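Ticket #4471: structure output looks truncated?

Reporter: J.K.
Steps to reproduce: submitted the chain below (289 residues) through the standard prediction queue, then opened the result file.
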Amino acid sequence: MTVAKKREKARRNLIVALIVLAIVVVGGVGYSAYRSVDDQGGTVVKVGVYGNSDDAIWNAVQKELDGEKSGIAIELKPFQDGETINRALASGELDLNAFQHYAYLDQENKDNGYGLVSIGETYVSPLNLYSQRYKKVSEIRPGDKVAIPNDASNIGRALKVLDAAGLIRLKDSTKANPTIDDIASNPSGIDIKLNEGTAIVRLLPDYAAGVITTNVVINAGLKVSSAIYQSPVKSSNKAFKPYVNVIVARHDEKNNATYRKIVDAYHTKSVAAAINKNYKGAVVPVFKY
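Returned output as attached by the reporter:
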């Protein structure tokens, strides 16, 4: 065998060896990552969420848990409507969920007899006014249709947005949960239409405007900054308390030690930073860290 052929054979052998080594290393990392949960007697916790707008936030929570070697692995289960998420939690399909505020949770418990409770607060997600037809609120015309969420916990909140934007006037804008009957006047002449909250973003082409939550807007691939009216958010304002988003468990699991560790991991500086980065200031963390 010539020197050149020996060198070529050696080169090929080296390449094969490196490929095998790479496969072993990658395989070992993946294996140990899964084994770390099993070997430590850890557990997978299924968390129901709306869409994928909070993925970056939960990734930050998982990093905190991993850093503490907690043995807890979060498995996100995305849904497309809140009623289904709460039903899945109540039935035991989920361990926790994180998508709703206090007002929505209270209404769901009242309507369905669920024993669901908050075990930790997350952030305030404002309702804003969006339009594909207009650039400014002042462009809205009499007779234009404006969509708002139809669930009892968000009707009043949406009406407060329309009041603040100057489209309607409420009898008492400080009332906890006003209804359509609490509208004192409608100087803009808009036609208010009640719709399922998560569907409003898809209905925008057919409406002059719609009041939509931030996470629904992001899940639809739109920018929060595209709102023609943005509600000011102050987490210290007691008026926002009913609209603080929460992590929810079944009542008999409210003191579950594993779930408490997840809440503690959520209430950290790195997760607050992930919230601010993910939502670019449109959503405000409410927890102390």
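Triage note (M.O.): checked the attachment and the full token line is present. DSSP finds nine helices and twelve strands in the chain.
Status: closed, working as intended.
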